UniProtKB/TrEMBL annotation, chains A, B:
SMART domains: HTH_LACI. The keyword Lyase does not apply. The keyword Metal-binding does not apply. SUPFAM superfamilies: lambda repressor-like DNA-binding domains (SSF47413), Periplasmic binding protein-like I (SSF53822). It comes from Myceligenerans salitolerans. Keywords: DNA-binding, Transcription, Transcription regulation. It holds the Pfam family Peripla_BP_3. This is LacI family DNA-binding transcriptional regulator. InterPro entries: HTH_LacI, LacI/GalR-like_sensor, Lambda_DNA-bd_dom_sf, Peripla_BP_I. Residues 1-41 are annotated as: Disordered. PANTHER family: ALANINE RACEMASE, LACI-RELATED TRANSCRIPTIONAL REPRESSOR.
Length: 380, 380
DNA sequence: TTGAAAGCGATACCAA
DNA sequence: TTGGTATCGCTTTCAA
């Protein structure tokens, strides 16, 4: 009875897959290119370790109920054979073990691309340890992003999604809500969240209020903000916070939209050309702040004496301009880690609503980094 | 023997999976969170369309041997039910239908992030039509990237890989060669390619030679290039091409490495501070060119009269600096499309070496975009 | 042109 | 603690 134990339905004593031989092309589905080596399966590992496949699976997944010696032997054998569980097979039973971030990559968002990858890098570190992978994809518009997520959810390709750069009236929210898919919203606190969602809030509102106080303390009376893409909730939130702090000090505030570098340049141009231009300009990101510096230079407006500039997002480039840019710190790494943790939370929340994890985590921006682009206004 | 064929060992006549009801929680693997709606499977579609699952599969995949009416009905029903084939199940038989690009994302590569996503966006358009998806992941070093690809290959997660930013002695090459996995190499012609690889070559060598001629024609006699990360084959190739063209005209050439914005700034600083500094500087990317402009301004070196600057990679920012930057075009979109096509080629090359597809495609850079940062040198 | 059913490679239940 | 095996949802022979 011991030797009959193999589940080989076609009477085939000692010949089919055994033998140690390497069948050029296993009977079933053609292995995609790369031919040659047949990759080992759990059966190979089980046989080599002299146990059943169940034990291999248990050992691999660190479940209890496997003798320590057995576990070690199995893991060693698996390692020797270079075996890793096939994602497809695993997903088929247990559901997908990956999540996706679909970056809305319209031309204007160029500078955000780098930080998206930084965010993912940080998140992946957290996720790796839990065996979850996070993939990045791109879409031209929020609608396309929503479409992709819908499709991939239907295909059971991903177990959840990460959403960044929320817009007002964002198509992705509706899509995710209807699927309904676990999701992590990055950046905004104002989104009503179903239990399957978590959000990682970047507290730039506080930081922008600080910017307002900072500029007020310096003595500025006319401040403008050059905001990013129209619908972005983040830019609106920042503008509101800034406006609030300034109005409290009785300071004149103006917001101008400059979506994408070209339009930003145009907007700054007309803003600074006017007779009584503001004495301080706050931008959303580092690239736009660079544009402001350049336009000011062209108009012969001296920074920081005639014009103070604050970059809304700090980056390496902010240190290298002349003058270097005062900026709001952007803690991508901490944000990414928080995203990773939140994602693990939603993915594990297997329909267990009693989960104690907070639906929202806030990452503080930290204090303004003051550099050379800000000063008291020229008292002319 | 015919009726016994079903491997249902527990006698279970007419009760197991049939019945049409929608079990709240199918007996098998717990469906990951999101509970509620059970997503339809091919069986549901087959039943609703009154055909077998085989027909549904054939219809979906556009194989011949299905009556046109049947095909249409099946597709309509599938659409009504919102059915999409589960990736896991499909992959299990047919192999993975996705490929990955692992971006090596060291701090210095910040500016390349945007173009990586642009590349992927363009490639995805081509791939989508063929039902292939391309995912982006990040890794801190080439070794980590190699590690990830090895693992994902063992897990049958991806059918192939896209490799960008090749380095000399690149760990990824060795890893991929040993797997052996289908791959598309972006950017370099010098890599010996196994049959399962294709390469998309960006012909910046020709473009950089043109830059050399252009500067020679303007009358420059001392030219320097600020190269990117040490090991990058692309930057080396560019430097070589530039050096070649310049030496042909008997012009002095010097290459300085400035990996990352900070070191780039330092390198430019010492380069321009020397008594007899070059009259023209060529950089690898747009960001570094911006740094050159800034350093020059600080040292009161007038661009373009006392110093000409050429950006090795054109980008939106090059138009907005003062002066605007003369640059080598970077046709990301065409590169991405080529990558998509090449990827389809390697993935389809199911161990069929008689495939007629060229192992390498070259994308031309196009003519130098001359803007305001270049001029004849000051004849002082 | 269609249907029946054998896998693909894991996980997880139930018995031993 | 371990083994046997049904099951996940497709694709793909092989017969009808």
């Amino acid at each position: 009875m011991v030797s009959t134990a193999r589940p080989n339905h076609h009477e085939d004593p000692d010949n089919s897959t055994g033998k140690g031989g390497i069948p050029a092309s296993p009977r079933g589905g053609r292995p995609r290119s790369g031919e040659g080596k047949r990759r080992p399966t759990i059966v190979d590992v089980a046989r080599a370790a002299g146990v059943s496949t169940a034990v291999v699976s248990y050992a691999l997944n660190g479940r209890r109920g496997v003798a320590e010696v057995t576990r070690e032997r199995v893991l060693r054998v698996a390692d020797e054979l270079g075996w890793r569980p096939a994602t497809a097979a695993r997903s088929l039973r247990a559901g997908p073990g990956a999540a996706a971030l679909v970056a809305v990559h319209d031309g204007a968002a160029g500078s955000r691309a780098a930080s998206t990858l930084d965010l993912v890098t940080a998140a992946s570190e957290v996720l790796d340890d839990a065996g979850v992978t996070l993939a990045v994809h791109t879409a031209g518009t929020v609608e396309q992003a929503a479409h992709l997520m819908r499709r991939w959810w239907a295909e059971r390709r991903y177990a959840g999604f990460v959403v960044t750069g929320l817009r007002s009236d964002d198509a992705r929210l509706a899509a995710l809500r209807h699927l309904p898919a676990p999701a992590v919203m990055v950046g905004d606190p104002s989104v009503p969240a179903p239990p399957a969602w978590r959000s990682v809030v970047f507290d730039d509102a506080t930081a922008f209020a600080q910017v307002g106080e900072f500029l007020a303390d310096l003595g500025h009376r006319r401040v403008a903000m050059l905001t990013g893409a129209e619908g972005l909730l983040a830019t609106r939130r920042r503008a509101t916070a800034l406006a609030g702090a300034l109005s409290k000090a009785g300071i004149d505030f103006d917001a101008v939209t400059g979506d994408g570098v070209d339009r930003a340049a145009a907007a700054v141009g007309s803003l600074l050309s006017s007779g009584s231009h503001p004495t301080a300009v706050v931008t959303d990101d580092d690239v736009t702040a660079g544009v402001v510096l350049d336009v000011a230079r062209r108009l012969e407006i001296a920074v920081p004496w005639q014009l103070s500039v604050v970059a809304g997002t700090d980056a390496a480039a902010c240190r290298l301009t002349t003058p270097s840019l005062t900026a709001v710190p952007y803690p991508v790494e901490r944000l990414g880690q928080a995203v990773g943790q939140a994602l693990l939370g939603v993915l594990r929340a297997d329909g267990a609503p009693n989960e104690k994890a907070p639906p929202s985590v806030t990452v503080a921006a930290g204090g303004l980094v003051v550099r050379g682009s800000t000063a008291p206004p020229d008292p002319r």
